[in-house]
Amino acid sequence: MCHGVPLRVWIVHTEYPNWTDKHLPTVNFRPIGQRPLVVADLSRHHGWMDVNEVLLPGVGLRYEFTNADGQRIGIVARRTGDFELVDYPRSDPDEGRPLFRLTAQEADAVAEILGAPRIAERFADLTREVPGLSAGQIAVPAGSPFAGGSLGQSRARTRTGASIVAIVRGETVIASPSPAEVIQADDVLVVIGTHEGIAAVREIFRG
Amino acid sequence: MHTSLALLLELGVILLVLSGLGTLARRFGVPPIPLYLLAGLALGEGGFAPVPAAAQFVEAGAAIGVVLLLLTLGLEFSTAEFAHSVRRHVPSALFDMVVNAAPGAVAGWLLGLDGIGILALAGATWISSSGIVARLLSDLRRLGNRETPAVLSILVLEDFAMAAYLPVLAVLASGGEWWEAVIGVVVALTAVAAAFVVSHRWSHHINRFLAHPDDEQLMLRVLGTTLVVAALAEFVDASAAVGAFLVGLTLTGAAADRARAVLAPLRDLFAAAFFLAIGLAVSPVELVPVLPAAFALAAVGVVTKIATGWLAAGRDGAGRRGKLRAGTALIARGEFSIVIIGLVGAGHAVLGPLVTAYVLILATTGPLIARWAGTARAVVQR
């Protein structure tokens, strides 16, 4: 058995048939070089997927999982930002067969194509520097002073230091919303910042 | 201006030759370190093309080379990875130390070396080259393999052990009494612990000072700080190398990433100067008599590293082929063995040539054996 850290990865898709608050991707904030993982699912259903995370000291991380076809797949995420994909033949599960390598730029393009929410990347960049950072979800109440106004009008980041990295609206997610994005009642805001910052944003939208 | 002309010309030719050798080495899948050593041998006294003018630069560059090698090693270091390695691979690392240091110690005793010589030779046979091995695993596309984390963990633990070993050796080599060595070790360990605390608690302050947004400023600040700390460490007889390692440890996160990128070309240049200088210091004539001993040590070193890798990979549940791959990947000795000799070189006539030959053999054959082990399907079928 390979000794790694088993992760539970919430698979999200850009259409969320039964989205509820508790289904928001939980992102583990872990130390340097370890990126939180949110994986997009192309098969249009969602649920938990088991991914094994193996530390490669000095090199980076390796994620391993078995896909629906029973193929064991490994993704090596190097500190340099490069990626390498391998699969494991059933005859010898120890030795990965190299499939292909991706530079950081190519990996970005592939991630874009697969539709992975870019939120994860942003979280990783922000939390790498500041271990005290956390994420929160804030539902915008119907009577909120900013319901119907643009995100920029709330001046949430200027006032609290916390960033709104995504808006969950019904079954869609607006990743990385611009300041012009209009907030509606019952939107759920994904906020990252300090605990105090997140609490302050909640206050702002409660009015 | 005559000397300067000779210096420029000699240095330029040397760098071009090194570049050619490096390309050649890559083609045959071996690291450039042994070829740099050979180039040093050829250029030194008794070699066939002495370079008196460039030798001065190489000597000075070598000192900076050691500092930069250790600084970048410290920059690579992450507490999380160290903790992980400690959790899983302390028994493998202890086994690694015992079985690989013992042949060096025994050989040193047989060759009639004094205590310091024995300690140095034991260290030189113990420590794998993390630079060569990490590069090798990547080149052979083995990062996806099951045994790879075990190999990398061993390297991390070995490198960390060096932080305790080098000051002991440095103090003893500088002619200190045993109690001075103890003080040296205590100072070094305290400094390592302090560096850890600092990097945990106040890293953002240090990073803020060192990690200037401008690359040039970043390079100057990190390099300047490192050289000052290295000099201070040398002053208290704890070895400049250890001081540099500590500076590397305290830099973390994005600052460390950027510093690594900025310093990489400098490190490559000065490390090349360092390997050249070691070759320069050894005359080819001295090399011949130690060859039998070097080959014997190397043969034992191959076996003991395979045993180490076998054990470590087995702890991670790898099969036979994985265990063999892990063991053979660890064979290569390189920069650290040379650093150790750099510390005690003077005054031990036989040690310099012996370890140079030893590294020449293992840095060349290690990667070749590792490559072969990946394809040796028939040899170790279950």
TrEMBL record, chain B:
Membrane topology value: Multi-pass membrane protein
Cation/H+ exchanger transmembrane domain: residues covered: 15-365
Transmembrane portions of the chain: 51-73, 93-112, 118-138, 150-172, 178-198, 269-287, 334-351, 357-374
Keyword Iron: no
Superkingdom field: Bacteria
Main location: membrane
Keywords annotated in UniProt: Membrane, Transmembrane, Transmembrane helix, Transport
Localization terms from the record: Membrane
Keyword Transmembrane helix in record: yes
Family statement: Belongs to the monovalent cation:proton antiporter 2 (CPA2) transporter (TC 2.A.37) family.
Protein's recorded name: Cation:proton antiporter
